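Running this now, will post back.
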Amino acid sequence: MVSVAKSFDAPIKLFFPTADVKRPFSMLGLGDIVIPAVIGFLAAHVLWNGEVKSLMEFDEPAAAAEAAAAKDETDAKLSKKVE
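Update: finished.
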């Protein structure tokens, strides 16, 4: 994976000098920057907008009604196939 990243010459990698003679440069790829930034953005978005609370609330009567409607729909489809 490192050999592919080193052979690809595009502005998606950053090299930083090190004191090590065997490895004169330390490489930081685009994925090392973008992926943590996206995770941080999504976490901040959820915290600031309060969407976690709405996702964690469960409306039991609404879920039961949806399940009953889905069951009735399935039963109707099966009865049409039998006829």
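Strands lie at 13-17, 25-29. More later if anyone needs it.
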